[in-house]
Amino acid sequence: MRRFNNRLLAAAAYVCFLPALYIILSDARKDEFLSHHASRAFYLWVLEAAGLFGLRLLLMVLYDSFRILPPFDFMFVPYWLLMFANVTIAVLLFFNYSPRLPFVSDWTESVIYK
User: What is the C-alpha separation between 50 and 43, in angstroms, rounded?
Assistant: First the structure.
């Protein structure tokens, strides 16, 4: 069974960006469990940031070119769903269940186990 501190730190990496960055940049990355979850959480955070940037860029182009301003409530639904998925993964990980994400898990395993 994993140590409580490791599970808590890995779960926090999914909820907030800073623990994932801390694990990746410190000696904690030597622990296989922590490095796997930190790289997976970091990848999800990068996807979220890129998605949010792309959404903002799309809104800017739509407004500047066509003077169309879609309702913000509906535009940010995918972003909030991804945030909810991150929190759900963190809660499952905290209770010692590690879900496998199809594309993200394959990418992190290829990076870690090279």
Answer: 11
